[in-house]
Design brief:
Chain A: Pfam families: MbhD, MbhE, Proton_antipo_M, Proton_antipo_N. The structure holds two protein chains of two kinds. Chain A has 34 helices and four strands. By secondary structure, chain A is mainly α. In chain A, the strands form two sheets. Chain A has a two-stranded antiparallel sheet. Chain A has a two-stranded antiparallel sheet with strand order 2-3. In chain A, a hairpin with a 4-residue loop joins strand 2 and strand 3. In chain A, helix 6 runs antiparallel to helix 7 and helix 16 runs antiparallel to helix 17. Chain A starts with a helix and ends in an 11-residue tail after the last helix. Chain B is mostly helical. In chain B, helix 1 packs antiparallel against helix 2 and helix 2 packs antiparallel against helix 3. The chains are: A mainly alpha, B mainly alpha. Chains A and B meet through helix 28, helix 29 and helix 30 of A and helix 1, helix 2 and helix 3 of B.
């Protein structure tokens, strides 16, 4: 157990103590007790940053299930470091924010912080794991923790709906990813990610490669809310705002991006990978930004904006995967796209976290998040307004904020696609920059709309539930920290470029670097009159025009077909599944034993008959003994009696016929020289006929008029089929006897070994006495059961039948 | 010679049992069937006896006795059932 293991496990360990502390110090806001943990984790991670940025990775191993190749392997490289810092850093801020956001008297705080720490530990586990199974375990734990946190206010219908939706979608993707991991294991023979990266060239030709690729991507897309799986994210906004800020903007939704980045060394260079990642990313970018404009709820706007920005990063990762196709000497390097991806990933976490916290503050201080009711808060909440402006303009991609830089790099990456000459990009490559620009225009519109409609315009105090005022300082500190990071990174991007981003890029593209080499990651604020700058200027110009005329065209959204939305599809699918399966179950679970017997016998006919037809056994007549004439006659009697059971009109006669069958069977035992069997058969038959008579006496009066058995063709056919198959089976088995019987041993040793001459009885009580004991037990149970059934009359108004 | 005779006798006895079977199936009333079953039991006794001679075995003597007893008990039980509707009376002493 090393310190790296401890970093992953510490939050889990801490969850144990939270309820204890809560009980011991009921007056303390439990958040204060939680706060030191993420700070400690952050500091401990920061202490390693020197090592990581000089490309020395920290790793530790611990056996978990070694016999299956599952190790608790943790591994810290540039990519893990970037994510771990985001998780612990924003985790610290979110805990601080939640202390002021959640009321200690009204809320179940201990539950909140247990879930939150569970999530933090799981997320650290996801980004630090080297073992795929470990990664999957933590992955599902994040789904579970997210489920618990979304449904934190369990009394609300919408919270439960959102939690269920997110759970279903992310766990669906998680299962797909699990299958993909197993395929990877089948191909590579190891669960270790680094082990798989080493085998990447060998794996790529495998027929299982493409299924594994698609399945892993399914997991990443569902978690990172890519189209069409993004629908859970807006509904997850029912969670408390600290949760939305932490899980649904900065960390959990980026787990899918992490997975794509982590798997890039294995899958990159494949056309399927490029088109799926870049294509879905771009479409999500466009769809998310397009949908965000029509939202009226602050958190919904932010949710769709998150969807869109995640699509942006995803598409950059897709374009970046082209880098492996061109060698380092080539001028057209695509690693710039990967750099843009990790840079924007960091930037998005900062400004989106701040914006969510702003939305929470607005909600907290005014009682609503509806932008139609809000307005004119600028003078009342100046600090919040400043943070919102910084975050909003960074999101829109305006200088001097960090969003501007990563957006420029995004455009660079998209323009690079024009130079690519693989995967039919000569034809379709032109779409990349076009979609990028259109989506950026929408992004600009909703970012400005978010700030303007909340803080500018006229105050509408009559529509607000509370009298708005500035938030307490504790609630403002976390977004202030994030906003200053936005500015700091905006002005000095190279602070993190060399220490954080460069190791992350080299972790995503490890095979491109010669030992001791570095990627060129200098981010310049001003890079001349380039195409990217003109694109940004165009975006700003068109965006401003659209914002100013917003009220004229936003109603166009109402004309879009409402029936064709994905949420409707999801609800319809869920309802259809429920109805379909209940209808399906009702269709065959009729509750009638007759129907079930038909199924059982039909199955018997199909399986046994089918396999008989498949095997085609030889029915040779040579092995059978000859039959005397009287034996034919006795057989005829037996058959006649059996037929009579079915054909006679009265039940009494049917019992008599059954008795006749029993007696004839005992006669067959005589003919086949089994005196003990014949004896037993006779007695048992007599007793059971007497029991049948006993039963018939008690049949209700109504039913006493005895009808002939009704003829039903299905039953008839099934009965004929089963009889025929049993006959054929018996004849077929009789002809083939591959081994000698062991009965010779019993006959030879009954006298000497067991001291008896009746071999049947010796077998029953000596050689195989164990069976006999259990048969006695069966009879005993039956007797006690009958006694209990007759005597025990519990509940109900049973009058004993006289 | 004895075996041939026995086989012939067995054949004839089987025919008799078949006749009884016909009555069991056909017999207009339940009483006809009970009597037919009873006589079928007697047929079984003789078939068993002849078989044990044929097989040169004494193992089946018990069966002959048992069929005798059971046929009697069965017929009595049936008769009682037809007569009174029950096989075993609830109150043995009274009435």
């Amino acid at each position: 157990m090393s310190w790296l293991h401890l970093i992953v496990l510490a939050p889990f360990l801490a969850t144990v103590f939270i309820p204890v502390i809560h009980k011991a110090f009921p007056k303390l806001h439990i958040g204060w007790a939680v706060l030191p943990l993420p700070i400690a984790l952050l500091i401990s991670l920061l202490s390693q940053i020197g090592k990581v940025s000089s490309h020395v990775s920290v790793e530790a191993s611990m056996p978990w299930i070694p016999s299956y190749g599952i190790y608790f392997d943790v591994y810290l490289d540039g990519l893990s470091m970037l994510f771990a810092l985001l998780i612990t850093g924003i985790g610290t801020l979110v805990v601080l924010y939640s202390i002021y956001y959640l009321d200690k008297h009204k809320e179940r705080l201990q539950a909140f912080y247990v879930y939150l720490l569970l999530f933090m530990g799981a997320m650290l586990g996801v980004v630090l794991s080297d073992n795929l199974m470990l990664l999957y375990m933590f992955w599902e734990t994040t789904s579970l923790a997210s489920f618990l946190l979304i449904a934190y206010w369990t009394q609300r219908e919408k919270s439960r709906y959102g939690a269920q939706k997110s759970m279903l979608i992310t766990v669906f993707g998680g299962m797909a990813m699990f299958a993909g991991f197993i395929l990877l294991y089948v191909m590579g023979g190891t669960f270790s990610i680094r082990g798989l990266v080493e085998q990447a060239p060998h794996i790529a030709g495998d027929p299982l490669f493409i299924p594994a690729l698609v399945l892993v991507l399914l997991g990443a897309f569902t978690k990172s809310a890519q189209f069409p799986f993004h629908i859970w994210l807006p509904d997850a906004m029912e969670a408390p705002t600290p949760v939305s800020a932490y899980l649904h903007s900065a960390t959990m939704v980026k787990a899918g991006l992490y997975l794509v980045a982590r798997m890039t060394p294995i899958f990159a260079g494949q056309a399927e990978w490029f088109w799926l990642v870049a294509g879905f990313g771009l479409f999500t970018l466009l769809w998310g930004s397009f949908s965000a404009v029509k939202q009226t709820d602050l958190k919904s706007i932010l949710a769709f904006s998150t969807v869109s920005q995640l699509g942006l990063i995803m598409s950059l990762l897709g374009v970046g995967s082209l880098a492996v196709l061109y060698d380092a000497a080539d001028e057209r390097l695509f690693y710039a796209a990967v750099l843009a991806a990790v840079f924007h990933l960091f930037n998005h976490a900062t400004f989106k976290g701040a914006l969510f916290m702003v939305a929470g503050i607005v909600d907290h201080e005014t009682g609503t998040r509806d932008i139609r009711k809000l307005g004119g808060l600028m003078s009342l909440m100046p600090i919040t307004f400043t943070i919102a402006v910084v975050g909003g303009l960074s999101m829109a991609g305006l200088p001097p904020f960090n969003g501007f830089l990563s957006k420029e790099m995004f455009f660079t990456g998209m323009l690079k696609v024009l130079e690519a000459d693989v995967f039919a990009l000569e034809t379709w490559g032109i779409l990349f920059p076009i979609i990028a620009v259109v989506a950026s225009v929408f992004t600009f519109v909703y970012s400005l709309m978010l700030v303007m409609r909340t803080f500018l315009g006229k105050l509408q105090p009559e529509k607000l539930e509370k009298k708005p005022h500035e938030a307490p300082i504790g609630m403002l500190i976390p977004p202030i920290v994030l906003a200053s990071l936005v500015l700091l990174v905006g002005f000095y991007p190279n602070l993190i470029a060399h220490s954080l981003l460069e190791p992350a890029v080299s972790a995503i593209l490890p095979n491109l670097l010669a030992p001791g080499d570095h990627f060129e990651t200098h981010i310049s604020f001003w890079h001349g009159w380039t195409a990217e700058l003109f694109m940004t200027m165009g975006v700003v110009a068109v965006g401003l025009l659209l914002v100013l005329t917003l009220r004229r065209w936003v109603s166009l959204y109402d004309h879009l077909p409402q029936r064709l939305t994905l949420n409707r599809l999801y609800d319809g699918m869920l309802l259809g599944l429920q109805r379909g399966s209940s209808k399906g179950t009702e269709a065959y679970m009729s509750g009638s034993l007759r129907t079930y017997l038909i199924y059982i016998f039909l199955f018997f006919i199909l399986v046994i008959g089918g396999s008989l037809a498949f095997i085609q056994p030889t029915l040779q007549a040579s092995g059978y003994a000859p039959l005397a004439a009287y034996e034919w006659l006795l057989g005829l009697i037996l058959a006649g009696a059996a037929a009579a059971i079915v054909l006679v009109s009265s039940r009494m006669s049917a019992i008599l016929a059954a008795g006749a069958v029993g007696y004839m069977v005992s006669l067959y035992f005589v003919i086949l020289r089994a005196p003990d069997l014949a004896l037993t058969q006779l007695v048992v038959e007599t007793v059971s006929v007497a029991l049948f008579l006993l039963c018939f006496y008690h049949l209700p009066k109504l039913r006493r008029d005895m009808n002939r058995v009704r003829f039903q063709s299905v039953n008839f056919l099934i009965a004929i089929g089963v009889g025929a198959i049993i006959t054929i089976l018996t004849l077929a088995v009789q002809g083939v006897r591959p081994f000698d019987s062991i009965s010779d041993y019993f006959i030879a040793n009954a006298h000497d070994e067991a001291g008896g001459d009746n071999v049947v009885n010796v077998i029953l009580v000596d050689f195989r006495g164990f069976d006999t004991m259990l048969e006695i037990l069966v009879l005993g149970i039956a007797a006690i059961g009958i006694y209990a059934l007759i005597k025990l009359r519990l509940g109900g108004d049973y009058r004993e039948h006289q | 010679m004895l075996d041939t005779l026995l086989l012939i006798a067995l054949f004839i006895q089987s025919l008799a049992a078949l006749g009884c079977m016909y009555r069991v199936i056909k017999g207009p009333s339940v009483s006809d069937r009970v009597v037919a079953l009873d006589s079928m039991g007697i047929s079984l006794i003789s078939i068993t006896a002849m078989l044990s001679v044929l097989l040169r075995s004494q193992s089946f003597m018990d069966i002959i006795l048992l069929i005798g007893i059971l046929a009697f008990i069965g017929t009595i039980a049936y008769s009682k059932f037809i007569e009174r509707g029950v096989v075993i009376d609830r109150n043995r002493r009274g009435k």
